[in-house]
UniProtKB/TrEMBL annotation:
Name the record gives this protein: Dipeptide ABC transporter ATP-binding protein
Main location as per UniProt: membrane
Keyword Cell cycle carried by entry: no
Amino-acid biosynthesis as UniProt keyword: no
Entry similarity comment: Belongs to the ABC transporter superfamily.
InterPro entries per record: AAA+_ATPase, ABC_transp_ATP-bind, ABC_transporter-like_ATP-bd, ABC_transporter-like_CS, Oligopep_ABC_C, P-loop_NTPase
Pfam families reported in the protein's UniProt record: ABC_tran (PF00005), oligo_HPY (PF08352)
Membrane topology qualifier: Peripheral membrane protein
Amino acid sequence: MTKPLLELEDVRKLYPVKKGLIVQKEVGTVRAVDGVSFQLMSGETLAVVGESGCGKSTTARLAMRLIESTSGTIRYDGQDITKATRQDMRRLRRDMQIIFQDPYSSLNPRMTVEEIIAEPMVVHNVGDRASRRDRVRELLRLVDLAPYHADRYPHEFSGGQRQRIGIARALSVSPRLVVCDEPVSALDVSIQAQIVNLLKDLQKEFGLTYLFISHGLAVVKHVSDRVAVMYLGQIVEIADKKSLYDNPRHPYTQALLAAAPEPDPSRRTAMKSLGGDLPSPLNPPSGCRFHTRCPLAQERCRSEVPALREIGVGHRAACHFAESVPAFDRFRNGEGIHPRLQERLALYARHKAALATASA
Ligand SMILES: Nc1ncnc2c1ncn2[C@@H]1O[C@H](COP(=O)(O)OP(=O)(O)OP(=O)(O)O)[C@@H](O)[C@H]1O
């Protein structure tokens, strides 16, 4: 039986908002992450998906304790890291590495590829100069680059190659947990699949555990074992991949699936046409946070907060009507679909058609 490598229990990150020129007064709180709980099992990939601003990156940074949580417990390999000392954290950081979204800005342009990849080994005092040199070349081969690339600079590489360098750097200290913060979002669609496949191969070879952050469900379909969907700082649905894609129970997950069948750049506009703007985490709606955009919302959704409850084996959703939300298969075929949602989908289809005409 596998053990959780990472556990978050009711974790919150609140940012006070202050105003005033001379005397600063607290005027509100941004609820960036608001009561998030999940377990990430050793060797699995959990994808955290949601629109921009829903708190995915904050969750990732909290998990690695790159930022301090306001409340809640974060356990890494059974140890509560919110209470870990600096020294403990230094040791643990070697075990948890991060791959960033933008391969253009995350590599220091003044450093050679060798220096970039070796940097975590230097920071964590791993090996001597000669062994680090060998390790860099071995890592370059692992990510399908050539050993002679070690002496070059980042600007000499394409986006996909730079991301391979970022991956080699993360793996240089043999971590167990790798946080992948939108690692393919900045890349061409044709390159995305190559990087996703590389990450999957490396996971198999080294038994890595991935926390994979993405704003689109299409990207994580091939890489994840389980998926958590976030909305305004909270997880609204979490399930194994098959249940989530075949039988999404939260109207927001359904909207994400309907609006973004493939990773295309018009996605965010598409979400707008599905149900208004994303509310601010500074002043989130009462009751169910999704009620202001939900085509199925009823009176109680405005006042009663839905719990994230079990609706199937390992499948949890935070919707008062999770059991009665139309099944996605029928939904996809246009039958049994709620009229208001149908209207929104028609609007989306018109919007896409208009985009296609405009770009023709
Ligand atoms: N240091 C900060 N101070 C105040 N608010 C913050 C801070 N960091 C993040 N936030 C807010 O917290 C919310 C969640 O941010 P976060 O970056 O985690 O979202 P995200 O889902 O990762 O979005 P993106 O995909 O755009 O990175 C946002 O509304 C953001 O503006």
